[in-house]
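Need tokens for this chain, all 163 residues.
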Amino acid sequence: MTQAEFKNIIKEKINQSSHGQLVDFSVSICEQLLPDYISFSKAEDYGNITLMKEAITFCKENRDQNAETLEMTLDLEDLEENIPDVDESEDLDSTTAMNASCAIFELLEYLTDRESDHIVNIAIYRIDTVAFKSGEADSIVSVDDLDSNAAIMEECKRLLAIF
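Here are the structure tokens for all 163 residues:
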């Protein structure tokens, strides 16, 4: 399976899913990625763990809220400022922390505009994190064949099976 094939399959599944299912799917991924942000934040004395946790809680609590009536009580700019810059530190921890915080940011954006590309991006952040942790840091970028890494392929299958 190529990354393009994965994206096409997951887009189909997203288009067939309810808003609530998509929020639940995304919250689950954000919760799986959050420990990477916490670990990086503590090690580097960087970021705002509380803000990231509050953002996930906000998404859970507003799962069924209509985008037009959603009252965003979080400052997206503040959240964005707490996303690690991997250009400053290209190690595994900063990359996985960036993936976690970007996934949370994407979920908040999805709640405000309901654009399904945010959900695709959240899934890709999860796949990228698995790739980095399995030692295949360049696999998503340079290798088109996701089947080449068992951990990545297993995660792709797991994500697709959720729907």
